[in-house]
Amino acid sequence: MARVRIDQAAINRFGSLPQVERDMDRRAQRVATTARSDAPVRTGEYRASIRVEDLGGGARRIIAEADHAIFVEEDTRPHTIRPRFRRALYWAGADHPVAVVHHPGTRGQHVMARALNAAYGLTHA
């Protein structure tokens, strides 16, 4: 998780709190907008869940609230998927129902870290 911390003493040195608040809003919105534009879209739920949260005192948090956001952001290990309520799994496009799926895992897309870095001209590996 990428974090940016702002020292309250530094805020006081750089200007009035309303100016700092406006600047932090602008910067946070820039990161959120970048994240939304870079987010993968299958259903649009992940992209739509990205928002800025005001924590007060000049602090902002950019979050993705979709239930599957953690799986988009972070790597998942290989795992087995079994049916919970039926005897087999089936999805649109599958040739036939299957009893078990051996999922190879996924690579995290690190959308938030890339957005934070892109908003400030940095690169992310």
Automatic annotation (TrEMBL):
It holds the Pfam family HK97-gp10_like. It comes from the Bacteria. It comes from Allonocardiopsis opalescens. This is Bacteriophage HK97-gp10 putative tail-component. InterPro entries: HK97-gp10_tail.
